[in-house]
User: What shape does this take?
Amino acid sequence: MLNSTLAELTAALAAKKISSVELARLCLERIGRLNGELNAFISFDAEAAQSAARAADARRAGKGPAAGPLTGIPIAFKDIYCTKGRRTTCGSRMLENFVSPYDAHVVELFERAGTVLLGKCNMDEFAMGSSNENSHFGPVRNAWNQRRVPGGSSGGAAAAVAARMTPAALGTDTGGSVRQPAAFSGICGLRPTYGLVSRYGLVAFASSLDQAGPIARSAEDLALLMNVMAGFDARDSTSVERPKEDYSRQLSLSLKDMRVGLPKEYFAEGLEPGVRGAVEAAVAWFKAQGARLVELELPSTRLAVAAYYVIAPAEASSNLSRFDGVRYGRRAEAPKDLADLYSRTRAEGFGAEVKQRILVGTYVLSHGYYDAYYLQAQKVRRLVARDFAAAFGKCDLILGPTAPSTAFELGARTADPVQMYLGDIFTIPAPLAGLPALSVPCGFDAQGLPVGLQLTGPHFSEALLLGAAHRYQQATDWHQRVPKETPL
Amino acid sequence: MPISHEEVLRIARLARLDVRPEDATALLERLNRVLALVEEMRRADTSGVEPMAHPLDAVQRLRADAVTEADQRELYQSVAPSAQEGLYLVPKVLE
Assistant: This one.
């Protein structure tokens, strides 16, 4: 049962082959058994989960509000989602003991749908990181190889889904934080179009980039999750007003004559051979289904990384100014004055990477540097968006690797921030342009580590991306393989 | 253009971040690596390109000037490090 997809679990719950209480118990047992090794969860509450599962079973039995497709499905949230009455740490010492007084909009939507919240997943502090080594609560380990990172920043959510501790989890993606850990962990993750999912109640990192995204084993499952989470919310000023969609509607889409774009920058030098081999085999599969391959150029790809590492820290330095020891979170002991209260609270509460990004952000926004850095980065951002606009005149979607490498070893990239940042080269462009993109497993390298294939589409093309990825998953079984280090 | 030790301390003050002198050197080295990455972008030709502040080029939605939130002051102040009678308490600013 633990190896079933959401779609299969939904059917099993509807057919009364299993109860939500049993399903929650299986997941909680597995979390209890594996969390000591993987450190995927910061907190979990077995009693609350069991009580939610009993309520879900009652709904399926006809008591209370009508059951929906996901009623009784266990789910986990990255610890960046505010959850009422539960700790919401954002992976930081600053919020170590913060209990949110309210729920994020997405949390409310899943609660209304009747899902069962298992717990809150580990993450890089304030979502700043690509390896989940920046958490105050310790690193997360990759379920495929525990000496390796699970990716980041939604590393706990990805490891939890990969290790079958939960069938689905909700992450966030600012520069790749859903897709890259999904790729490193052999599962699926979607970053939706900017504004499609409400960010109300998500701890803000870089507001012109942040998006909530689902993580699960299959594209079909991602569509089920999107059907719950997407939609207008007046409480998020960047929420897009548009009619509700059924994200499962293109699951039987034909790939014949679909124009598939292959940017030469995504297949340039620097790709690990194992990644190249798996991605090229996936491209060949699309061609064999009748898709037409279109060669493209996205010349601003490398500049995109530099622009991102100006824009994201700039916005973070502004967003994180709210952590000052006054209204919530940590406060330094015995401050001698207000300035001391602010600067010591922040020095004690933030970890090294967060401080570094706040300083970079403060610098690029400071007097005399704004035009040269921040404004220039926003112009480069437009160049990146134009590259994509031109590309989508020639193709329906773009294929490429999600990351240039597979999961690296813990500690391998911590000494040099730039080496870490350049690993985000393929996941950064889509957020700069506000585009949806997803990662789907497409094979393994010689060390047995999973490789992710990234599909990027025009704004609001989620159903198309999910359909194309689903067709690929019907023909492959990469997503069904269970990590050897966490056998069922 | 690498930044100096003094500049790091100046930025840290602007960011209200207490940086210990013994940490400043390592921090400076990391910041300069990041700024070297960013340098490539500064050389890009962007003449005539409009800055992009919003990925969909949308403007923020305005709402009617009407009360939409209930008063939850007590609940929200219950998570404050120090609050009393509806006020957040901080060290004395004026003697």
